[in-house]
Structure formats: structure tokens, C-alpha cells
UniProtKB/TrEMBL annotation:
This is Uncharacterized protein. It comes from the Eukaryota.
Amino acid sequence: MSGIYYVYMKWTRENNPTRTDWGRHLLTFESRWAADEAFRGLQGLKTAAGAKRFTTLKRVNPQFWCYDSVDGDPWWTIVYVQRENKLPELNYTLMSVILADANAGRDWPVISNPTIGRDWITGGSYYIRNRRQPNLYWYREGVRIVISTNRRTQFRIKDVDFDDERVLIKKDEVTIEPLNSLGHPTGDYVVKNGDGQKLSVGATRQVWDFSDLFDGVGVTWTGEDGSSSDIQFATSLPDVGDEWELC
């Protein structure tokens, strides 16, 4: 999932009136993947006593996060995390800047490419579309996944190791379940099959890496009998597929 990605981060402590003035940050990530992985990393940070460092870490939406922490000056926590190298991967994926306090007169940077759509949460139901050609959607047709401009199917994306709500990141293992027209699971799963083979739908519960859903699927115009077809079929193409996104 390529492309620079921005997040506003706001300090929020309901019983402290300075929450309206201090603790505003603009986080610039190398991709949405990096932002979601950073969020999961921040959730896991502990104090020396084993308590959560962030007492509040709420995703209002994918690009607006609210937080509080146990630090004495919590409005600096995201800066301290970077200075202390608590999450070393951030050295190569994150650049942050402290935004103006409420009573300052400086310019306010506006995110120029806000993300449209919901957060990618385990157990959520989503359409899957092509990132560069967003009119192309996954559609279940019988036992195949085809690419369509006028039809689309919702899919439930479920982390196989985690039942509670949390944001999904690349390394998570997930299942992909087509939903019927009422939004209910059909009891089937999307199966990758071999490299270069068409995706299929059936009762076999196959586990995917969440990242494979985005860059491990391509398309073919070859029909079931091996001849050229008017239908685009989704195929398994690890690491060389098109870019897809949930919406």
C-alpha cells in the first residue's frame, strides 16, 4: 500500500482543560501500512512497572487519533517514544511535527489526501476494489472471484488469532468470507490455490496473510476452458499482483 500517509494525533484528557490547547501532532508515515503498524506498536508500549504507557489511544478514524499517557507531560509522549527509540521501525517510516497550540497564530497544515472509508478492523465487512482503478471490484460468481465494474460482493475479514476489535496489519493472518445480499456469511471462504491459479470459493477455510489481500492478487482473461474470456478472473500472484484496498 504505497503513498505518503498523514495522521492527526490529539492529546485528550477530559478533566484537564488544556486538552483543547496542547498536544497536537501531525504524523507523516511512508504508507498506511506503516501508520497501522505504528498504532499497534503504541498500543503495546508498557511502563517499567508493566502498565500501559498510553492510557487512552483511540482511533476516531484512520487519520485522527486521540491519546493520553502516564508521562508527566503527556502532550510530548509521541515525541518521547521516538527519542527513546521504543519502536525502532519508526526511524524509517515516520516523521512527526508538533502543531501550533490553540492560541498560536501559525498556519495549520491540512491533509491533502484524506482517506475515504472505514478503518480496517478484524471482523469487519468490506468491498475490495482496485486502488489504481477504483471502479473494479471483487465479485463472487459461483465458485470464482471475478473483477467487475457493475457488481460487487462484501467480504468479512477475520483475524484468526484475535477475537476482539483491533486494527489489522500486514503480518496478521486472516480468513476472507463472502457475504450474501443480507450481509450474512455464506459458510464459504476465498481460497488462493496455486500461484497463477484462479481464486476459488468453497468450504475450505484458508488462512491468508493480510498483506496478500492487497498485493498478492492479479487478474487473468483466460476462461475455464483455457481460451480468452470477456470476464476478468482474480488470480493468486504473490508479490506481483495489482494493488487492492478495502472500502
